[in-house]
Design a protein that fits this description.
TIM Barrel; six-stranded parallel sheet; globular; binds zinc ion
Length: about 475
Amino acid sequence: MTEYLLYSKRCWIDDQIIEATIHIKDGLIVEIYKGQKIDRLSDTIDVKDKTSSSMSPARDVEESEIYFYDNNNLIIMPGIIDVHVHINEPGRTDWEGFETATKAAALGGVTTLVEMPLNTSPVTTNVEAFEIKKKAARNKLHVNCGFYGGVIPGNTDAIEALIKAGVFGIKGFLIHSGIDEFPHSNKQQLEEICPILAKYDVPLLLHCELETDEELPPISDPKSYQDYLHSRPPSWEINAIELAISLQNKYKCKVHIVHLSTAEALDIIHQQKLKSKGLTVETCAHYLYFNAEQIPDASPLYKCAPPIRDKANNQKLWQAVKDGQIDFLASDHSPAPPEIKLLNEGNLSKAWGGIAGLQFTLAALWAANEILTLEEFIPLLTAQPAKFIGLDQSKGSIKKGYHADLTVWDDEEYFTVTQEMVAHRHKESPYVGEKLKGKVVHCMVDGKFVVQNAKLDQLNAGKLLLKKYEND
Ligand SMILES: [Zn+2]
């Protein structure tokens, strides 16, 4: 088994950036040498320096091949945990798929992701469908992957079995999901499942848009981004979040607001957080990177729901991230073939809504960031999402005994995204052409270098993650 010694002047350990050498063995972090550059272990004779010209190990040393990596000033941090990803396999593998998504994830420094229950066929709303999805993922995971189950009208009886089968949460909608097989729920349906979720302490993940009686301005031009923006107002998000909060107060269940877009909801979120620890909120890279003012008309690449709002709103989101009101950041990677995005036609009413960005979350956020320190930024992609999915005892931090899921990146390097760089199945993404900051150099999953020197290397390192509940 290959062992590694990873050194950097800047490792994210115990909530500090410090010099350290991290010893990796059998997929685990077995030792951390703080403040020290350790390029060999006393009881071994053959540590290979990966930074010198001799890149290959001596093959005659069978048992203990130990490689030393001097990462100098690069950041070594826990691998990114992206808990909001749509992979669309099986059933819509032509939209993305495990193979392409998990390669793109690794290249972007993501070592663990959690996959959403819709966009696949069948949708993951019962155990049979979950089994089909797990089978589809077999031998295709280059990073770790867990799953959510879904709530739709009529599947209340399937929820407990899905939880026992190991999903990390139950996702529901309050408005058309975009996928006919995954219809949205009403309050009564959610009330049926909340006691089950409370029993197992499983989060209800809600797409928070719920239509109101408010009369909206008509869409005069389906190519106009402003018209699209006004068709999905902040009041819909607030309406849904109020419902989510009422469910939480009544049933004492965990509720997670996915992809918060409007800053107008921050006040009610804040009030609820004072009352309940069970409310969590995420926002996504595209809401923080792009602003409505810059989005051209007739460009469905930027279409998502809820929509990307104006700069003043998005600056308030950044502040809420800094203040800890938003718990963590995710991609909501939701790719689709260009034909469905209607890139030529540019019709925002008809085009598929969803942003392809899994590979670029880190670099987009770091490029757009003006207010977070590195110390504030790193946990939003690592320890915080690990805590949300209940894996914070083994992932999301660099600690002795934790899984060796690590991302090594250069926080100073700028790069412009080209289509050739994109490892998603489809190369169209609003990030193409954007100048981002923060290059992923190495990405290690369970002690294997899936990405080495910014190139894919040891594949199939990912594990299928199943959640274990105490009430099982
Ligand atoms: Zn989503």
